Amino acid sequence: MIRITSEQATDGRIVLRVEGRLIGGSTVALRDLIERHRESGNALAVDLGGVAFADVDAIAFLRAERRRGTALRNGTPFITYALEE
């Protein structure tokens, strides 16, 4: 189960707050939401503070997003370590 909420930060970025487990279909849901915002021309940040677990596909996706310029914030120690390349 995953919950994704969005808000506009004071710097104009759209912040997507993710809570739950990033696995399978939940990663697809996050990808689709990021793409919709990107197509609208919005700068993005993803707040990972509420992510308890991310599978290998989710980590690969988040790494790719970071390379595309998406800011990844507030990762737990597990997520932060997993995102190291």
β-strand amount? 35-45%
Mean pLDDT value: 92
Oligomer designation = single chain
CATH top level class name: Alpha Beta
Q: Could you tell me how far the N terminus lies from the C terminus, measured between alpha carbons in angstroms? A: 27 Å
Following the backbone from N to C, one meets helices and strands in this order, namely EEHEHEH
Largest sheet: 4 strands, mixed
Counting H and I runs of at least 4 residues, what is the number of helices? 3
Radius of gyration: 12 Å
Unreliable segments (pLDDT under 50, ≥5 consecutive)? Answer: none
Would you give the CATH topology?
A: Transcription Regulator spoIIAA
What is the strand arrangement across the widest sheet? 1-2-3-4
Please identify which CATH superfamily we are dealing with: STAS domain
- Estimate the helix proportion, in percent: 40-55%
What's the overall geometry? globular
| Overall strand count | 4
Blueprint of the fold:
Elements: E1 2-8, E2 14-22, H1 25-39, E3 44-54, H2 56-67, E4 71-73, H3 77-83
Parallel strand pairs: 2-3, 3-4
Antiparallel strand pairs: 1-2
Give a verbal description of the structure.
By secondary structure, this protein is α/β, with parallel strands linked by helices. The protein has three helices and four strands. Strands 1-2-3-4 form a four-stranded mixed beta sheet. It is globular. The chain starts with a strand and ends with a helix. The model has no long low-confidence stretch (mean pLDDT 92).
Provide a concise account of the structure shown:
The chain has 85 residues and is an alpha/beta fold.
